[in-house]
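wait is this the right file?? whatever heres the structure
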């Protein structure tokens, strides 16, 4: 049985008329939500193919929530597809996971008041790892996508750990800002709120400012957060920066916010300081898809600057040769690969303190060694660059070169080079000389359609390095070598 479905039945019995799920126009009580999940699961049971995974290609909505829960009830493997995936990426993911049917916008079934179509797909059968409840693709690459298979128990262990760490007092009104098709919001947002008996206030992504997925309207987003009286959010650093900028520009207050989890990329301490100074209670966390999206998290009860928080109680973490190893059995395996046996090597570099707080210094595979022999994690430098309001995206490079360089995408159009240089100078002031950016080039926004960023906004370094090879491989261009000291 499912902990989430057990919680749904529990709250439907204990507080049947209390609000569980709402949109900007409708609300569902716990009793009504439980009945809707049961009704939709009955319809899907009759109409779904007998085997194979089921994809969900839908915007954030109550219908997505109900469809996800109905498929849990049917014990069908689910593949959520982000709307920002290209058609090629979607097709590749569906073929890899053996998707036999897809739920998408259209007509045919009414789910939580919304028209939804169930379409059959001609994918050949694929044998997923035994117990697979959800398949998530870590990068959505067009060539060889890497599907992570998770069981319902593994995902719910993450959700239950989050409730245990944060307590139920923070389960007020949670508003999803990331797509529900992204594992982090699904497992760390929706499921814990259902377990804790809170309210999940979900709106379409365009409605809250994401008509363009990677060019948000932060003013609209901030207004919607205030309108929903959201008490909790999950954000990536870029969105947190945008909310803070919009808040400062409009003077809008967000007094209801009690907890904002920030992850998906390294977070500069300065960004967290700025958030808290502005009344946004932001806390850094860390995770990866193979571990159900969250490994460690700072919280109001336990917060340590410079760390990504304490490891969640259902996991154990060890450090081997500087690499973070997470266990005991975080995921089932990759689609088409061997079953996962035991802990997973995360590929992230870090340290575990005696008080249980985990710190992450960068990716093992991304480590830069300059020609002066300095070892540098680019995420460290990038976090300082991204803490500057003028910088929207950044990728640092410099392997075997005398100094670091960077590709810089401005946070808004029309910024003069002098403004970007000033921002880089401020970031450099917080870095030791050997880790400062000495040359840079302005670039257009990194394009997810070209594979230049991952679903969580992380730069895909190999792709960007090829796109800007002429600049990256020319260290003498505007270079200012740093001292070897």
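ok assuming it is, sequence goes like this
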């Amino acid at each position: 049985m499912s902990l989430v479905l057990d919680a749904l039945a529990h709250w439907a019995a204990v507080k049947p008329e209390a609000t569980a799920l709402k949109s900007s126009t409708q609300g569902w009580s716990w009793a009504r939500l439980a009945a809707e999940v049961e009704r939709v699961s009955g319809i899907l049971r009759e109409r779904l193919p007998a085997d194979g995974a089921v994809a969900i290609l839908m915007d954030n909505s109550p219908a997505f929530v109900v469809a996800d829960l109905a498929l849990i009830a049917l014990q069908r493997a689910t593949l959520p597809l982000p709307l920002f995936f290209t058609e090629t990426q979607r097709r590749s993911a569906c073929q890899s996971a053996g998707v036999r049917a897809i739920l998408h916008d259209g007509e045919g079934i009414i789910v939580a008041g919304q028209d939804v179509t169930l379409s059959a797909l001609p994918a050949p059968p694929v044998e997923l790892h035994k117990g697979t409840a959800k398949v998530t693709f870590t990068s959505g690459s067009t060539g060889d996508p890497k599907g992570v298979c998770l069981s319902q128990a593994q995902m719910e262990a993450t959700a239950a750990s989050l409730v245990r760490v944060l307590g139920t007092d923070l389960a007020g009104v949670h508003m999803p800002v990331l797509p529900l098709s992204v594992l982090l919001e699904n497992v760390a947002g929706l499921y814990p709120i259902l377990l804790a008996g809170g309210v999940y206030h979900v709106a379409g992504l365009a409605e809250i400012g994401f008509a363009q997925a990677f060019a948000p309207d932060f003013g609209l987003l901030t207004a919607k957060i205030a309108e929903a009286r959201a008490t909790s959010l999950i954000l990536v650093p870029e969105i947190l920066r945008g909310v803070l900028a919009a808040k400062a520009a409009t003077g809008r207050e967000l007094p209801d916010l009690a907890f904002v989890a920030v992850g998906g990329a390294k977070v500069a301490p300065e960004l967290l300081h700025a958030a808290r100074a502005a009344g946004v209670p932001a806390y850094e966390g860390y995770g990866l898809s193979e571990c159900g999206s969250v490994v460690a998290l700072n919280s109001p009860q336990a917060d340590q600057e410079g760390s990504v928080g304490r490891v969640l109680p259902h996991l154990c973490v060890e450090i081997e040769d500087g690499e973070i190893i997470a266990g005991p059995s975080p995921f089932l395996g990759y689609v088409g690969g061997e079953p996962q046996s035991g802990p997973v090597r995360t590929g992230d570099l870090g340290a575990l303190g005696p008080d249980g707080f985990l710190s992450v210094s960068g990716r093992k595979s991304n480590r830069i060694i300059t020609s002066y022999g300095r070892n540098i994690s680019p995420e460290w430098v990038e976090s300082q660059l991204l803490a500057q309001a003028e910088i929207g995206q950044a990728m640092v490079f410099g392997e075997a070169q005398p100094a670091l360089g960077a590709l810089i995408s401005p946070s808004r159009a029309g910024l003069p080079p002098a403004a970007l240089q000033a921002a880089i100078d401020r970031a450099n002031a917080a870095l030791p000389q050997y880790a400062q950016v000495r040359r840079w080039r302005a670039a257009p926004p990194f394009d997810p359609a070209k594979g230049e960023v991952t679903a969580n906004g992380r730069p895909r370094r190999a792709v960007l390095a090829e796109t800007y090879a002429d600049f990256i491989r020319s260290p003498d261009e505007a270079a200012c070598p740093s001292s070897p000291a």
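Residues 367-472 form a domain with the GMP Synthetase; Chain A, domain 3 fold (CATH 3.30.300.30). so i think its the right one actually
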